[in-house]
Amino acid sequence: MCCGGCDLVIPLTEPQNVACGPYASITPVMFDVGLEEPSDFSIHYDGTQGMVRARVKLPANPAMTYTGPVPIVFDAPTATWKLDPERFANIDTFKLDGGHLLGDGSVFGWRDLVVVTNAPPELNRYLFSTTNRMWGTEASGQPLETDLSRNLRPGNEIVLPLENNGMLRFFVEIRVDYEQLKKNQIVIRQKFVNQPWLATDQADKLARSETLDPSAAVMTADHAVLVYAASDNGAKQRIYASRRDAEDQFDVGRPIELDSDADLDDTEPWIAQDCTTLYFRRGGVTYRAQ
After folding, report:
1. Cα–Cα dist 285/265, whole Å
2. DSSP for 2-24?
3. pLDDT for 93
4. Cβ(202)–Cβ(4) under 8 Å?
5. Is the peptide bond before 22 cis (omega within 30 degrees of 0)?
């Protein structure tokens, strides 16, 4: 296991972080009626492209439907997210259980354990080719995750510049306990150029919590704040913000003020580069906090 995130000892150029709340307004995110039962919303840095899990009619064959992650675009005149038929392409052929759009336009896509066949979980990066207008898996030969003993829920990826034109990548994931024998776990992984992805110990303080059970997590682009959803001692899920400390660790942090409903979970947090805008899901509705 890598000893924390190495960026504390390597000079970096980092964007300035914006505090995670409190927010002045919380409003529903509007989806086109063609995106049925939308959930697990993610958004590109530029705010015009996104991805959501939904049931849709196949653009090439409207008589058939597909349920899974689909590319979407923001229609400014109607302030509505709509299916992007051009980037939909062949995304349905991968039979993904979920997918998140990343800052570079690629997608972290995952499949869960198939109990009947005992096929292990999968986590891959998918790239959209502007030449042949098709999606394909990254051919780096360096898997995002090698421990496939538990289902995986990736959050976002951040890329930090290093001295001498270097680059350091991080991504955060939830390792899901589908056997219900122990809590879910947040894991932060890092990668230098031409090196494999390695687990860090940055979320170990969180893992040692005896009461928190996380379900989703993302990081700010400056690697300073971890935003995650969790249930504390079996209570309704709430969204927390934890700032990376002097030991290069994220602890439990604090609940984000979102005027929560006592009867509903707050889940599926997503941010772009910082916490200026926070997206989350409550009672089957995706909200935007600003």
Report:
1. 11
2. --S-GGGTS-B--PPP------S
3. 96
4. yes
5. yes
Model confidence, pTM: 0.91
Is 144 in contact with 172 (CB distance < 8 Å)? no
Q: Quick one: DSSP state of residue 129?
A: E
**Which of 184, 60, 53, 160 has the alpha carbon at shortest distance from 109?**
53
Write the pLDDT tens digit of every residue in 19-43. Answer: 788 899 999 999 999 999 999 999 9
Instruction: Give the integer Cα–Cα distance in Å for 91 and 68.
Output: 9
Domains defined for the chain, CATH in brackets:
30-289 (2.115.10)
Give 219-261 pLDDT, tens digit per residue.
Answer: 999 999 999 999 999 999 999 999 999 999 999 999 999 999 9
CB-based contacts of 83, cutoff 8 Å, min separation 6: 32, 34, 35, 56, 59, 70, 71, 72, 73
